[in-house]
Structure prediction request, 460 residues.
Amino acid sequence: MSVRIRGIYATALTHLLEDVVQASPPIRERFDGEFPQEPAAATVETTDDRQGVGVVGDRNAVERIVDRLRDLGTDALAWEASLPRGGVYAGEVTETLGSGAVVDVGDGEGFLPYSKSARRIEEDDRLRVQVTEASPPWTDGRPVLDTTVRVHGGLAGLVRGGSTPAGRPELADLVPTDPPEGWAVDWGRDSDDAGLDALDDALAAVTDRAATVDDAFADAPAPADAAPHRYWGGDATYWVWFGRETRFALDEHRREVVDTMAGHHRIKAADSAASAAVDFVEAVCDRSPSADGDQDFPFDVVTRQFGPREGETVTIDHGKPDGRCFTLGRGEVTACDADGSVTVQREMSPGGTYDALGTDRQAGDVAVTKFQEGRWWYPTVYRGDDGTRRGTYVNVCTPVEVFPDSVRYVDLHVDVVKHADGTVERVDDDELDEAVEAGEIPDPLAEKARSVASAVENAL
Prediction:
């Protein structure tokens, strides 16, 4: 189960997982022992928004790693990508945009930059494309496509349609394995530090996969006749979202290796500037490695330095158990307290009714939501322009995280409402049951959601 790890969670995950290869220089400095420069069965990389990781590679290795990551915390959730990295499809162009085209490949839509095609792209065109960058389900981005077919590898890859090795052509004469006909070798950056035996093993591995791609194309219908159609499934690709409890569990793993401030990964996930500040603090301060999670998490310091501050605005990023994420709108921060509570007020547009409350949305209505960092629920009070309370909606969710520009969590379906007349009602238990049945919410997380809902219902 050899694995290559990159990103802000690398130290913690290197401590958690076995058989780490191609370790970065900082990781090699922090750990005793050698990290071989050999092919990886899977790669774990932090997502661009730092909310989790992508796991890509051999299916057996990927699934074992994902199982380990799920066990880190109750609020760690994972989904398999509908369009995996490396997947090759016959697709149809459904829309042309300023810098590229939207392509329907059957399993979903991808984005093909015009720079990735040698021909002019127009609507209704049918062409063969490959997924080069998969996209987490909680973001708005589409997977990125290319018309050039590649077989990816950390030390060595192959490019279909070429014959000249790219990057370091002299290596082609030094390793015993020859690339298959019609494929060019693309040596990875980490190949500089690898021995010839490791490079030969890497080239042999991608050569076998290239043969699988060639077989998939043999006698296959042309894109014009087949679109949408999948030629080759590519690499197993999963996305793992880390909730707040999971980030603190990762802190514990990192603390076994190097001094780690409380909330290390929680702060780093919030903002790139905050991430740099954490590195600085840990480099110059003699922190005790026994910091105890929430008890030492400097919420007040972090929010005063990086936000959100009173008078600023934040979005409410409402994650769903199937991996998608919706924005409930942007509101003004009217209070931010040292205990981790943030109050957000939004103006509501008229029309329709408030979910579960059944109350009409009227002009002048406001929603006042109080978020508490780390809490498994949050209340929203809806009021009319005259101050009349229209009802209270309590959302049950994974532990809330208050980031500089947004509040994030994953909704767990079951909720509790208090109507204007004082009647309390628990709703959407059936949706929670359906999510468990669909495999979107693990049983321990579902039990936690039910327990929280019961406590809130009794308190109201």
Summary: The chain has a mean pLDDT of 92. The chain has three domains: 1-84+235-291, 88-234, 313-459. Residues 1-84+235-291 form one domain.
